[in-house]
Amino acid sequence: MIKRLIPISAAVAWMFWGWAGVAYGQSYTGVTISAAANIYGAGFDDAPAPGGGTGGLPPIVAAITIPDPVKLTFSSVTGLVRCSVSDPLNGPDGGTGAGGVTNMESFRDVSGLIHSNRTMFLVGVFRDSNAGSPGGTPPVRLGFSDPENFLTLSPLLNQMFFIGDGRTDDTNAVQTFFVPAGATRLYLGFADGFSFTGFPGHYGDNTGELVADFEFTPVPEPAVSLTAAGIFLGGWVLHRRRNAKTSPPQA
């Protein structure tokens, strides 16, 4: 009896190990992101401004130290920012300053981004250990529009993506960003340029800041959990059948 229970116990232990792995994460709290954080500086030693004006500050960087596959979620993003003193303050989801349309070009190996209804919103870029290498080709630009109700998003390495407050506009549900394989860092900042078009620049008149709480967690692998569950169930059925054969008949 003991020999038959060993693999069943091992299967149960493996299954619980998988569940425990889901709970393990890497959290960042109280991360301050200046309105002058230039997302195009992700992985580089500068804050570029080929579109004119000034390049502002380097973007905020957060290391990703847990193994693939990984997902990113934001529990809180608060604060107010604006792109000039003549424009109204807006939250992390952006506003309508400078015309309310974002059409930023790619620069170096970081993609640009398009948004048909907003400007000055929080964006991110995932980078790997090769970030900052010269001559890289940027991925295609992602396009966004109101309302921002996507539940999941899977950006590529070096592909700028919309974050805002990390929640849907309609139900305030937490959005999940799947980290691309090989990513070692997340950069956070803003995509700015002259009237939010063309190449990056004109960060010098940005004011305000955001504060973000976010977490990287492993993505559970259903195949492993299902296999362990199948082993456990098969062993339990076999155990019941053998007991049924050897048990004395009931009076």
Give a concise summary:
The protein has 251 residues and is of the alpha+beta class.
Strand order of the largest sheet: 1-13-3-10-8
Question: What is the second-level CATH architecture?
Answer: Sandwich
Q: Please give the CATH class.
A: Mainly Beta
On the 0 to 100 scale, the average pLDDT is 85
Total count of strands: 13
Topology:
Blueprint lengths: L1 H22 L2 E9 L25 E4 L6 E13 L19 E3 L8 E3 L7 E5 L14 E3 L7 E2 L7 E2 L13 E4 L5 E5 L7 E2 L8 E12 L3 H25 L5
Parallel strand pairs: 4-12, 5-7, 8-10
Antiparallel strand pairs: 1-13, 2-11, 3-10, 3-13, 4-5, 6-9, 6-11
Helix pairs in contact: 1-2
What descriptive keywords fit this protein?
251 residues, alpha+beta, five-stranded mixed β-sheet, four-stranded antiparallel β-sheet, 2 helices, 13 strands, 19% helix
Structure description:
- With 251 residues, the chain is α+β, with helices and mostly antiparallel strands.
- The protein has one domain (25-220): Galactose-binding lectin (Jelly Rolls).
- It has helices at 2-23, 222-246; strands at 26-34, 60-63, 70-82, 102-104, 113-115, 123-127, 142-144, 152-153, 161-162, 176-179, 185-189, 197-198, 207-218.
- The strands form 3 sheets. Strands 1-13-3-10-8 form a 5-stranded mixed sheet, with helices on one face. A 4-stranded antiparallel sheet has the order 2-11-6-9, with no helix packed on it. It has a 4-stranded mixed sheet with strand order 7-5-4-12, with no helix packed on it.
- The protein starts with a helix and ends in a 5-residue tail after the last helix.
- Residues 1-23 and 223-229 have low confidence and may be disordered.
